[in-house]
Inverse folding.
């Protein structure tokens, strides 16, 4: 079992930055990939960034050049967000894959508004 707890969200103005963190606990060994998703009001959850340690990282086209994803041995997964836009507003969820299971955090709110 893996527990994921996100933090770092909040209300910011356009152009500002935020750093989201996701702390993983429990049986974190063998987590082979982690990701950040977001869900805006009235929209489907979408993939923002994904990391497979020492293999690759990928980010959605909508955030390329502004967001980066990283981790420290999958104990904490980070999402560094720069040049935030109002369309980045939503609930951000951390996700981790371990064997055949996929785990989710409860999410953290990010609001970008003047």
């Amino acid at each position: 079992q893996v527990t994921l707890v996100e933090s770092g969200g909040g209300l910011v103005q356009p152009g500002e930055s935020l750093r989201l963190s996701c702390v993983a606990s429990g049986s974190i060994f063998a987590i082979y990939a982690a990701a950040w998703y977001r869900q805006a009001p009235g929209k489907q959850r979408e993939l923002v960034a994904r990391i497979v340690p020492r293999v690759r990282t990928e980010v959605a086209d909508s955030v390329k050049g502004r967001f980066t994803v990283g981790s420290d041995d999958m104990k904490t997964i980070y999402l560094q967000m720069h040049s935030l836009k109002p369309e980045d507003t939503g609930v951000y969820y951390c996700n981790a894959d371990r064997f055949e299971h996929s785990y989710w955090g409860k999410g953290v709110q990010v609001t970008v508004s003047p």
Observations:
- The mean pLDDT is 95.
- The CA atoms of residues 34 and 106 lie 15 Å apart.
